[in-house]
């Protein structure tokens, strides 16, 4: 995966907001991501890659406009899809 250029990311000047872990702060941070960030999708992809296999409690804050619990769900779904694809491949080639 190519390095993401975060130089124009709107979270940089709002570090205090993105460090908050209360519901109101996280919701406000999500609105920043979804409303103004030019690298939101790449940011989410990088977060999912870096946090693969972690529980929600081990994931920090909002990344890519998505909170820790939802990223953990996305990670599990992605892993499950990979398992299904691998299984389908085995069945086809068996
Ligand atoms: S999507 Fe990522 S880079 Fe963009 S504002 Fe949100 S946390 Fe920052």
Biggest sheet: strands, sense, closure? none
Query: Roughly how many Å apart are the termini?
Result: 32 Å
> Which ions and ligands are bound to the chains?
iron/sulfur cluster
Q: Rounded to an integer, what's the Rg over CA atoms? A: 16 Å
Structural class: mainly alpha
Strand content: under 5%
Mean pLDDT: 93
The coarse overall form would be elongated
Describe this structure in words.
The structure is a single chain. With 94 residues, the protein is mainly α. Helices cover 60% and strands 0% of the residues. It has 4 helices and no strands. Iron/sulfur cluster binds at residues 6, 9-11, 32-33, 37, 39-40, 43, 62-65. The site of iron/sulfur cluster has 14 residues, from helix 2 and helix 3.
Give the secondary structure arrangement, pairings included.
Layout: H1 15-19, H2 23-36, H3 40-50, H4 68-93
The structure holds iron/sulfur cluster.
In short:
The protein is mainly alpha-helical. The protein is built from four helices and no strands.
Q: Which keywords apply here?
A:
94 residues, mainly alpha, 4 helices, elongated, binds iron/sulfur cluster
């Amino acid at each position: 995966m190519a390095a993401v250029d975060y130089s124009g990311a709107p979270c940089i000047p709002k570090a205090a907001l993105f460090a908050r872990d209360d519901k109101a702060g996280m919701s406000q941070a999500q609105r920043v991501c979804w409303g103004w960030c030019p690298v939101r999708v790449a940011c989410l992809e990088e977060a999912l890659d870096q946090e693969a296999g972690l529980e929600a409690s081990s994931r920090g804050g909002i990344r890519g406009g998505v909170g820790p619990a939802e990223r953990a769900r996305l990670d599990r779904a992605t892993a499950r899809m990979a398992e299904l694809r691998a299984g389908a491949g085995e069945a086809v080639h068996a």
